[in-house]
Design goal:
Layout lengths: L3 H19 L8 E2 L13 E2 L5 H15 L2
Antiparallel strand pairs: 1-2
C-alpha cells in the first residue's frame, strides 16, 4: 500500500498545527487517525482530538473572526 496518503495527511496535520500555534492554539491530540489503515478502501482521516474549554473558546473566536472577512 502506498504511503503517499499518510504522508499528505501528516503534512496537513503539521501545517494545521503550525497555523494554530501562530494563533496561540494547540490541539494536543491533533494527528493522523491510524484506523484508516484497517479499512478495505482506505480514507485518510485527520484526528483533531480533544481540547480543554479555554482552547475551544479561543478556536471559536478565531473561526468567527475569519468568517467575518
Amino acid at each position: 500500500m502506498s504511503t503517499e496518503p499518510h504522508t499528505k495527511a501528516r503534512a496537513a496535520c503539521d501545517e494545521l498545527a503550525a497555523v494554530l500555534k501562530q494563533l496561540g492554539i494547540v490541539l494536543p491530540s491533533l494527528d493522523v487517525d491510524p484506523v484508516w489503515l484497517s479499512q478495505e478502501r482506505p480514507r485518510v482521516l485527520v484526528e483533531l482530538g480533544r481540547c480543554n474549554l479555554e482552547t475551544a473558546h479561543r478556536l471559536t473566536a478565531v473561526l468567527k473572526k475569519a468568517a467575518e472577512r
